[in-house]
Amino acid sequence: MSKPPIAVAMNRAAPAVLAPGMVVECERVQAGLRRMGTARAVVLSRFGQDSTAPYVVWFYDTEGPARLGDDATVSLSFPREITHFWPLSALSDKSLRRIVAGTHGFDPAAEVRRQAGEALEPKRAQQRR
């Protein structure tokens, strides 16, 4: 799958605030110990108030539905770990559908599910024509 055009290339640090629904490329760390390389994720929220607080992100592209626990696909990413970011609307229909389906029943991702559904609407309307 080809990546969408990167809206903003980062200098190894995210801006002070990334809103829920922003897609990021960041380091994936399993159980806080094992680095697993960079992957795409979508920001669900901020875990704290200051500019160094990590983001709660879901690795939607590789790990399955959003979930917490031992096999979590939702993790934390610090601003310094985020290398690129772009809007949710830049994703393909397939990725947007995956986000809508993968966040179903996961309340912390309700805002992202809403945004992905809204981004799909114009594309669905165009397909019906």
Question: Can you walk through the features of this model?
Answer:
- The chain is of the alpha+beta class and 129 residues long.
- The chain has helices at residues 93-103, 110-128, and strands spanning 8-9, 23-30, 34-46, 55-58, 74-77, 82-86.
- It has a six-stranded antiparallel beta sheet with strand order 1-6-2-3-4-5, with no helix packed on it.
- Strand 2 (23-30) and strand 3 (34-46) form a beta hairpin.
- The longest helix has 19 residues, at 110-128.
- The chain is globular, with a radius of gyration of 14 Å.
- The two termini are 26 Å apart.
- 30% of the residues are buried.
- Mean pLDDT is 81; it is low at 1-13.
Q: Summed up, what is this model?
A:
The protein is 23% helix and 28% strand. It has a six-stranded antiparallel β-sheet, with no helix packed on it. With 129 residues, the chain is α+β, with helices and mostly antiparallel strands.
Distance between the termini: 26 Å
Sheet of most strands: 6 strands, antiparallel
Q: Which runs of at least 5 residues are low in confidence (pLDDT < 50)?
A: 1-13
Radius of gyration: 14 Å
Structure classification: alpha+beta
Residue fraction in strands: 25-35%
Mean pLDDT: 81
Shape: globular
Distinctive features:
129 residues; alpha+beta; 23% helix; 6-stranded antiparallel sheet
Give the secondary structure arrangement, pairings included.
Elements: E1 8-9, E2 23-30, E3 34-46, E4 55-58, E5 74-77, E6 82-86, H1 93-103, H2 110-128
Antiparallel strand pairs: 1-6, 2-3, 2-6, 3-4, 4-5
